Amino acid sequence: MSTNKTYDYILAGGGLSGQMMALELQKVIREDERVLMIDKSDKTENDRTWSYWSTDRNLTDVLARKVWNQIKVSGKDFSKEMSIDPYHYATIRGIDFYNFTKKELENDKRFDCITAVVEEIDETNGVVKTTDGKSYQGNLIFKSYFESDKLEIPKEDYSVLYQQFKGWFVKTEEPVFDPDTVTFMDFSTLEDTHETRFFYILPFSETEALVEYTAFTANRMEEQVYDDHLNWYFKEKLKVSNFEIEEKEFDFIPMTDYPFPQKINGRVITIGTTAAFIKGSTGYCFSRTQEKIKGMVRALSTKGKIEESDIVSPFHFRLFDSAMLEVTGKGIVPGERFFISLFKKMAPEFLFRFLDEKASMREIIRTMFAVPGKGKLVIATIQKLMIGNKI
Ligand SMILES: Cc1cc2nc3c(=O)[nH]c(=O)nc-3n(C[C@H](O)[C@H](O)[C@H](O)COP(=O)(O)OP(=O)(O)OC[C@H]3O[C@@H](n4cnc5c(N)ncnc54)[C@H](O)[C@@H]3O)c2cc1C
Prior knowledge:
Mean pLDDT: 90
Number of domains: 3
Bound molecules: flavin-adenine dinucleotide
Shape: globular
Strand content: 25-35%
CATH superfamily of the largest domain: FAD/NAD(P)-binding domain
CATH topology of the largest domain: FAD/NAD(P)-binding domain
Order of helices and strands: EHEEHEEEEHEEEEEEEEHEEHHHHHH
CATH architecture of the largest domain: 3-Layer(bba) Sandwich
Oligomer: single chain
Helix content: 25-40%
Structural class: alpha/beta
CATH class of the largest domain: Alpha Beta
């Protein structure tokens, strides 16, 4: 098989992280450099909606469907609306991001974007083979497609959970939603559980919203379970019966402290989910992806290479995240108790900074002492340390 064409960079997978990498490379590469982006999908469908908090407004300004400055957290005996200043919370539809990237790249002769399925990447010579019998050679390859079937996680050492969710994009006849406030976590329950399960509302207007039921769970549940909870929430909590479901979202995000075999040295570098960009304890990934990719491209253009420190989170953050995932994910401390207590004691600004891995060691310790069942969290932290595995 002959190699079709040679590129300086090949993006194997062009979803969130692949496209973010393309947009960042576009800012720094020379006129004579060439980039190929390969994705198995032509990205013409809205396959997901990303929400995230950030202080940085660049993509949000252009693409966000809506931006909020206030969140609400509720439990059985607690409800609080909070400003998240200096952060904002935003939501971007996948399709709007894909169309934006397409437009940015279509008249740039340095970029080729093709729809094809990558079959194999030869790490030694940088050859990427696709299932249509073609092959391309890349000097540096960023691989972002996730081969979950090839992954064998030793479950005795690592926490492996799913953030499974079902969302209804609804339109109501009467005004129901507060368009200025995101319901970040509402622990109202149809049934009692130790797991972290909550309702989440992104209100686009008084009559339009995404209402979602989310569970951090070790065992994925049937879709019907989610529908039952959503039906209950509309009837008993929102007290609304006249609404239309315009779109549905039922999916899951892996939550784990397993250190995906990240590739940094050599011709293939992993990015995105397959490089552990998803934060284990929260399942959020959008802002982390943007930040990590900016850091990688900065490193490439200043040092000519990417090093571990440009991509991997510092050890103490990984350790604490791992302990948090163990405790909340497995219901060792009931999810409602854990999160409500955090929001009672800490300002959202601080919590977001902490989850963004920008808090100081003093602030991390303060957080550990703010949560209920801190003893269990300390034990989980020590256990993770004792296993001696690389988290
Ligand atoms: C429904 C859903 C909602 C989410 N919502 C949020 C959210 O609100 N906030 C947040 O922070 N995170 C969210 N996430 C988590 C995370 O942000 C996304 O999963 C994100 O898209 C991950 O980026 P990625 O580049 O790793 O993977 P993807 O965006 O999935 O990109 C991988 C790409 O690889 C392509 N591909 C796969 N196999 C091949 C192959 N063999 N050859 C070529 N191409 C291939 C796929 O078509 C895909 O485009 C969500 C995830 C899902 C599934």
